[in-house]
Here is the input.
Amino acid sequence: MTASRPRVLCPEAAVSRTLLLGWVLVQVAAASGTTGVVAAYNLTWKSTNFKTILEWEPKPINHVYTVQISHRLGNWKSKCYSTTDTECDLTDEIVKDVKQTYSARVLSQPANATSYTGEPLYTNSPDFTPYLETNLGQPTIQSFKQADTKLNVTVQDARTLVRVNGTFLSLRDVFGKDLSYTLYYWKASSTGKKTAKTNTNEFLIDVDKGENYCFNVQAVIPSRRANQKSPESPTECTSQKKGVSKDVFFIIGAVVLVVITFIATLSLSLYKCRKARARRSGKKNAPFGVA
Here is the structure.
């Protein structure tokens, strides 16, 4: 029986094992670099009058976020680089074309990303079309005037961050005839509301003469499926002074004139009667003349 000899590794096998061990160590190091990195969730668009912010959770501990945005035909564009915030203002991107549909994604990376070479975790947002989905802000009543039986109310369009040739556009500039306003009005002494609608910024409605009215307005886009209405504006009220009308003044004046005329006529008649009576009394008391 012959004695077994010890196995001798050839140089090629030793090199292969060394390379394999090195690759395993690199993977372990990369995996350890992602410890504590959490993918974003609950991505939500918050937009009013085209001021648009993307929000998400959770608050980071050992990682940072970068946001990317793109419309359907475009490339991803990075915003809010390596931030620890959980929101990103994307207004300057979406106002370039408010009728486009946009998608965003939030990338999660280790806070010390210089030593990290792996693919970042990311979460996609829901699609967002600003023209159809931005909330309408609370409108403002610019002016109002009540004259006799007419009430005129003027609504001021809100300004947006949409710009053309350096000029910020109003809601009316952006939505045109798609934008309308509803006026809710009621007598100050009651709670029964009436409504009026217009596709312009002016209301002219019939009211009762001498009555004070309160009212507010609401912006509406009837063609939308959701987010059709804005909050109602602050309430305004007219203040009609309770005075005597011209007709009443005329009647009172006529009555006073008749009374004065009657008193003057009566006084004159009494004066003439007294004078005539005094004349007759004087003739009776005078001595007879001698012929």
